[in-house]
Amino acid sequence: MGMWAFIAQEIMFFGGLFAGYTVYRYKYLAAFTEGSNHLPIELGALNTAILIGSSFTMAMAVRSAQVGEKGPLLRWILATMALGIAFLGVKSIEYADKYHHNLVPGLSFEGSGQLKIFFSFYFAMTGMHALHMIIGLGIMLWMIPKIRRGTYTREYFSPVENFGLYWHFVDIVWIFLFPLLYLIGRDPWMTIM
Amino acid sequence: MTTDTAITTPTDSRRVHYLNASYGIKSWLLTLDHKRIGILYLVMTTVFFIIGGVFATLIRLELLTPQADVVEAATYNKLFTMHGVAMIFFFLIPAVPAVLGNFLLPIQIGARDVAFPKINLLSWYCFMAGGTLATVAIIMGGVDTGWTFYTPYSSTYSSFYVPLALTGVFINGFSSILTGVNFLTTVHKMRAPGMTWFRLPLFVWAQYATSIIMILGTPVIAITLLLVALENVFGIGIFNPDLGGDPILFQHMFWFYSHPAVYIMIVPGFGVISDVIACFARKRIYGYSFVAFSSLAIALLGFLVWGHHMFTTGQSMYASMVFSFLSFLIAVPTAVKIFNWTATLYKGSVSMECPMYYAMGFIGLFLIGGLTGLFLSTIAIDIHLHDTYFVVAHFHFVMVGGMVMAYLAGLHFWWPKITGCTYSEGWAKVSAVLIFFGFNLTFLPQFVLGYLGMPRRYHVYPEEFQVLNVMSTAGATILAAGYAVLFTYLILSLFMNRRAGPNPWRAKGLEWEIPSPPGPHNFDVTPIVTAEAYAYDEEDVTPATPGAPDEGSPIPREAERTEA
Amino acid sequence: MDDHHVVPVKLYAAIVACLFTLTAVTVLAAFVELGALNTPVALGIAILKATLVVLFFMHVRYNTPLMWVYAAAGFFMLLIFLALLLQDYMSRDWERLPVQFLQ
User: How far apart are CA B521 and CA B514, in angstroms?
Assistant: First the structure.
């Protein structure tokens, strides 16, 4: 229950970013579309698939903990970590690419103010998301020795369950980030909202 | 940080209680006992109160004369900014929830501690870390944006210390959030057997409502301040009009939290007043469920009204109308409480002890503050009064006349329970009168000043406003004297060796069933609750006095008595 | 809050298959010209995906009504924030209320 209360506040935290994003998308749809078209849709889709996969492995991990299977639990957690790292790897490629195209606000940006706003939100939102993923990876790392020691049993696995909730939440944030950032106005005939 | 020997009450049986259960700095700084954490918060929030008070003093000194003679404009900007930041983020928001709430919530529901004691301690460290950062920002050069950090000044033009202060507030936000998570879970999961929702003291309902606000509101200001800091450092342009950014967006996001924040500040105070009035009127709170639900209603409605801070800053007129209407609505549950407290007093057996002084002061002053808030919600009036001293007077009435009074009422009411010592009632009444009188003299003239047009945050003003400003400063001096007296007798009470029994006020509530100060785990045996909340009707109407012989409470419940 | 209901693997597999499919649909739909409907469609699919994750991966389907309230509270509050925020921006250009009979 405490975890859900914490997630509620995380929703509001990211929600603030989404709110700001929504306002500026409403105001500057053209710039946002242009910005979105700079983003590699295939990498974004790949990352979405990776993260959904990691949610699956996480759910399986929680399930293993529920039935008290230590070995599978460890393997599913490692799988989740691997997918998480893969996600971050793809993200780094994307970020590096943006850097080379001078699209990073605050570093070496070239473009209109409105485009800068789009990319500010892009980096803020994906950056904050990535930060949460890194924290998640850290927590999983911390959990591994405990799993091996057998700390989690059929009766006591709430840390695993709670972490699962956190990880799924991070996935949900990306589920929304992907279409909102990468898929604006890709159709040949773009009209105002 | 005091060591325990100074606070230990020399009981005859050398009873172990939470204060003397273990000694040394480590036992305090690494404690998991919610009561000790409450004391830690008490000490540090008082420190920030004093810091904020020092800035207030400097402000009022400057405003004695129409010219700038004490400080210059840039410094003055820093003064009112830091007064606001210290008072709001590091005193008012933590005060009742973290001090009284931490101490009393588990006891009032019959639990041994909160749901997540380690997170509770973490909350305190977040508060300390945030407070330290903000203090460093003060000392190093000061922040001058106003506590509201409006963009684009804070994001584009102001100094480097702004992100530092913002980070401090950001970290402090985690303190709120974690406390809220803790309290919510505790109230849901750890009530004693028989403690149904409608047997809870209204203080618990208030804390519950406050926790909801803390959890849902604080993250928004967290992200907002983070974005401002990023913009200040990296120039990302979200709030910069030159790049297409909208400063009003900042205001929307800022006030989305900061308006509910004021309800974080006041709703626990409402809870305190409910408990205090019930005790000193020897009567059940009239309309208990209405008061309980009104706390929740305020929590929810509080999130819908933030635009009333922005009527004149560039919001669309239609949005302003919507927010104005919603702001009127929120007066309803608040008024419900005031009516119910008044009805509780009617035909009650009222005794005027010190907590009741503060409670009565609260009702009157909060009423004025709240009603003036309604004036400000009216767009036509707000056009004239926005950013004048009328607003300043309004929020000081609700926050100082309201919240601080409620906090002091609670502090005095539960002081015997928390410390096991009784304070000097005579001096307490002197201080209460000084504070009340001083407060009114300080802030009533400010309503007039605002109405006449004196803007806020200015250190110079036209000659004709001087008389009122002098009155205000005079009042502030009396107020400060009142606080000084208060600190003195409260601290002295710890050394004066006047022990308090378990229930000096003969009040109802699980906290009065256990010794003062409580043992480390609150209850030796889990209480089983059979009586309703505020079961005052069932006993005689002899008024309560402190230091009365220890009869314990003759409540017909099967709570196992802990040893005296 | 504690649910001891162990979800069968097949159900998880089915859900993740749905999620992959919906992702593909989202991407494809983005390239189809739907005019003003593009955004609602993308958002709708995202909401659907999120709901699947919440209900099944996060076990909310098997939780008590109280937990449903907790889970919904954050999203609900976010909706309120968005709604009241946008009503400002959308009404900034109005000269008068778009209600004919009030003229």
Answer: 11
Pair of tokens at residue B197:
């929702």
N residues, chain A: 193
Q: What pTM was estimated for this model as a whole?
A: 0.87
Q: Which chains touch A (3 or more CB pairs under 8 A)?
A: B, C
> Is C77 a residue whose pLDDT tops 50?
yes
Of B198, B226, B216, B386, the C-alpha closest to B293 is: B198
Q: Is B370 left (phi over 0), alpha (psi -120 to 50) or beta?
A: alpha
**Distance from C-alpha of A37 to C-alpha of A184, rounded to nearest angstrom:** 7
* pLDDT of B406 strictly over 90: yes
- Residue pair B517/B17 in contact by the 8 Å Cβ criterion: yes
Minimum CA–CA partner of A123 in chain B = B236
**pLDDT at residue A189 is higher than 70:** no
Rounded to whole angstroms, the Cα distance separating B18 from B503 reads 17
Q: Where are the beta strands (DSSP E) in B161-210?
A: none
CATH classification at residue A49 = 1.20.120.80
- Which residues make Cβ contacts (< 8 Å) with residue B299, sequence separation at least 6? B209, B210, B212, B213, B260, B263, B267
> Token pair for residue B164?
């530092």
Residues of chain C contacting A180 with CB distance shorter than 8 Å: 42-43, 46
Q: Under DSSP, is residue B388 helix (H, G, I), strand (E, B) or coil?
A: strand
Count the alpha carbons within 13 Å of B327 in the hemisphere toward its beta carbon.
Answer: 25
Domain span at A130: 2-192
pLDDT score recorded for residue B3 = 39
What contacts A12, CB < 8 A, 6 or more positions away? B215, B216, B217, B219, B220, C74, C77, C78, C81
The first and second tokens of residue C62, run together, are 């098997």
Q: How confident is the model at residue B114 (pLDDT cuts 50, 70, 90)?
A: confident
The reported pLDDT for the residue numbered B560 is 36
Chain C residues in contact with B317 by the CB 8 A cut-off are 91
Q: Is the pLDDT of residue B14 over 70?
A: no
Spans of all domains in chain C: 1-63, 64-94
CB–CB of A62/A157 below 8 Å? yes
Burial A131-141 (b: 16+ CB within 10 A, else e): ebbeebbeebe
Cα Rg, chain A, nearest whole Å: 19
Nearest-angstrom CA–CA distance, B400 and B414:
20
Helix (H) or strand (E) holding B71: none
Structure-token pair, residue B302: 């509080």
**Do the beta carbons of residue B216 and residue A9 sit within 8 Å?**
yes
Quick one: tokens of B104?
């009393």
What is the largest distance, in Å, between two alpha-carbon atoms of chain C?
A: 62
- Residue B146 corresponds to which tokens in the numbers above? 């106003």
Give me the mean pLDDT over the B51-80 stretch: 88
Instruction: State ipTM.
Output: 0.84
Query: Residue B557 has which token pair?
Result: 């419940």
- Phi, psi at C52, each rounded to 5°: -60, -45
Backbone angles phi, psi at A60, to 5 degrees: -65, -35
Distance between CA atoms of residues B309 and B528, nearest Å: 47
What is the SS3 string spanning B468-528? HHHHHHHHHHHHHHHHHHHHHHHHHHHHCCCECCCCCCCCCCHHHHCCCCCECCECCCCCC
Number of domains in chain A: 1
- Taken in order B427, B430, B434, B437, the sign of the CA dihedral is positive
Beta carbon pairs, A and C, within 8 Å: 141
Chain B interface mutation, best of C84, C89, C90, highest count of B Cβ atoms under 10 Å: C84
Distance from CA of A49 to the nearest CA of C (A): 6
The nearest CA of chain A is from the CA of B85 a distance in Å of 21
